[in-house]
């Protein structure tokens, strides 16, 4: 009776309780596992994994020298200070008028001599062995001669700077069979001339500029003209190509590498003004959404660390890899401008350079006064550079100097170079003047440990002495 009436019922109840306890613990464990998985998935969505950076995106070249010609002078430091203080204004051009006969605003460089450039160019052309065939197909107008005059000034100035190379004198004095033993690098010359020119015109002008560098003292056999592939390619893409080809993935450091990039363009011609007005592109009269024509020329000598020492370059500034993209919608169309693309490109450029956005001391753009470009620049500043004073630490080159194609973009780069060389703060160059193309690039001072710097200096001094 005790077994059937007491022990078995109690045992049965204990069994039921134990089964329920085990099932409850299993359900709790399953719920905890599901919650942890959900939290992990939510965290992955909220913070997507940063893609691995390709080692080539960290490559750089150093700016060994820079030269420019603008409507407001050729000193980058002074020009930058005037832009930051908002002291520059474009004037009415005495030689250019619109269809109604009224003068227009334009950026004209007064310190050039187109006639001298024309005479020099024709004299060089007459000395070429294929002169009769070339002269029949390549014809330049007055506006193009102004472009050549600007480019020639830059080529001569930078060519003269190259004569300081420590190995140049030894190379020139060495007999022909010993020249290869002298460590004088090949100069890669890349002229960025207007894409509206014919291919034959750009080729002949590039060869003439190479001849001017030779006249300054650089050996002709040590110059390679690098064509700017793609008429509509962005100027910063061409400079990025120089960095990309300066070394290989198997070579940790470039060298020896030496390049010269020259951009020049003049839009001060009656044909250009008429064409711009027909397209609705010209700023004139009551139309306040157009562009102002201008002219400029800019040049850079880019080099590896060894060539910097050979050229006795000071205030070393590194040019990092450029980030480029294209808008889906033209910035000239009505409506508000989306600044996400430019901000993303700038963020990518900062990541590739390993630079914190808070360190940026200057935002240089090639944009002008148009509201769409200003709005896009402000969105970039507010999104990535909240500590930057956009009133004094942001410049717009086309607004103060007029539009000169690739030379406008490289003028912004030259001003950023002057800023970084002076105070050591990195600079961000953002290109948004074009209706669709966008680009961003960083310039910064190299960060070198004192011990590494001393070792590098000693090694280069030894190499130079050996040469």
Distance between the termini: 114 Å
> Which stretches are poorly predicted, pLDDT < 50 over at least 5 residues?
42-51, 449-453, 459-467
Shape: elongated
Structural class: alpha/beta
Give the count of helical stretches.
15
Total beta-strand segments: 13
Strand content: 15-25%
Overall average residue pLDDT: 85
Helix share, percent: 40-55%
The biggest beta sheet reads:
11 strands, mixed
Radius of gyration: 30 Å
Q: Oligomerization state of this entry? A: single chain
Succession of helices and strands: HEHEEHHHHEHEHEHEHEEHEHEHHEEH
Describe the structure.
This protein is α/β, with parallel strands linked by helices and 467 residues long. The strands form 2 sheets. Strands 1, 4, 5, 6, 7, 8, 9, 10, 11, 12 and 13 form an 11-stranded mixed sheet that branches. The chain has a two-stranded antiparallel ribbon with strand order 2-3. Helix 7 links the parallel strand 4 and strand 5. Helix content is 45%, strand content 16%. Helix 5 runs parallel beside helix 7.
Briefly say what this structure is:
The chain contains 15 helices and 13 strands.
SSE layout:
Layout: H1 2-46, E1 61-69, H2 76-84, E2 91-97, E3 103-106, H3 114-126, H4 131-137, H5 142-162, H6 168-173, E4 187-192, H7 199-215, E5 223-225, H8 235-244, E6 258-266, H9 270-278, E7 295-303, H10 305-310, E8 317-319, E9 323-326, H11 340-353, E10 362-365, H12 371-384, E11 394-396, H13 397-401, H14 406-423, E12 427-431, E13 437-444, H15 450-466
Parallel strand pairs: 4-5, 4-6, 10-11, 10-12
Antiparallel strand pairs: 1-7, 1-8, 2-3, 6-7, 8-13, 9-13, 12-13
Helix pairs in contact: 2-14, 3-5, 5-7, 11-12
């Amino acid at each position: 009776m005790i077994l059937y009436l007491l022990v078995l019922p109690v045992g049965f109840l204990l069994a039921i309780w134990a089964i329920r306890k085990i099932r409850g613990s299993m359900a709790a464990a399953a719920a905890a596992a599901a919650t942890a998985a959900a939290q992990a998935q939510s965290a992955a969505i909220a913070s997507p994994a940063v893609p691995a950076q390709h080692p080539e995106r960290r490559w750089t070249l150093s700016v060994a020298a820079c030269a420019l010609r603008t409507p407001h002078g050729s000193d980058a430091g002074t020009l930058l200070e005037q832009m930051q203080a908002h002291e520059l204004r474009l004037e009415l051009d005495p030689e250019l008028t619109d269809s109604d006969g009224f003068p227009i605003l334009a950026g004209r460089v007064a310190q050039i001599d187109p006639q001298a450039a024309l005479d020099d160019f024709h004299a060089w052309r007459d000395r070429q062995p294929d002169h009769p065939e070339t002269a029949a197909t390549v014809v330049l107008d007055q506006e193009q001669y102004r472009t050549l005059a600007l480019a020639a000034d830059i080529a001569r100035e930078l060519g003269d700077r190259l004569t300081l190379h420590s190995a140049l004198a030894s190379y020139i004095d060495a007999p022909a069979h010993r020249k290869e033993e002298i460590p004088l690098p090949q100069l890669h010359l890349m002229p960025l001339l207007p894409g509206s020119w014919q291919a034959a015109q750009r080729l002949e002008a590039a060869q003439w500029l190479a001849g001017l560098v030779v006249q300054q003292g650089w050996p002709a056999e040590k110059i390679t003209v690098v064509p700017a592939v793609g008429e509509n390619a962005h100027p910063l893409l061409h400079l990025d190509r120089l960095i990309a080809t300066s070394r290989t993935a198997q070579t940790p450091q470039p060298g020896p590498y030496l390049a010269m990039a020259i951009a020049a363009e003049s839009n001060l011609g009656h044909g250009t003004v008429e064409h711009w007005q027909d397209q609705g592109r010209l700023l004139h009269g009551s139309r306040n959404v157009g562009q102002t024509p201008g002219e400029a020329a800019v040049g850079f000598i880019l080099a590896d660390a060894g060539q910097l020492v050979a050229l006795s370059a000071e205030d070393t500034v590194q040019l990092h890899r450029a980030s480029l993209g294209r808008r889906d919608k033209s910035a000239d169309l009505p409506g508000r401008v989306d600044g996400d693309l430019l901000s993303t490109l700038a963020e990518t450029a900062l990541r590739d350079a390993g630079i914190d956005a808070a360190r940026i001391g200057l935002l240089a753009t090639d944009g002008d006064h148009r509201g769409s470009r200003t709005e896009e620049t402000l969105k970039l500043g507010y999104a990535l550079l909240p500590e930057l004073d956009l009133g004094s630490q942001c410049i717009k080159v086309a607004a103060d100097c007029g539009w000169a194609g690739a030379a406008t973009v490289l003028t912004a780069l030259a001003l950023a170079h002057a800023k970084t060389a002076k105070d050591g703060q990195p600079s961000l160059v953002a290109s948004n003047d074009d209706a669709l193309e966008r680009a961003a690039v960083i310039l910064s001072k190299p960060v070198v440990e004192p011990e590494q710097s001393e070792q590098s200096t000693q090694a280069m001094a030894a190499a130079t002495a050996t040469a």
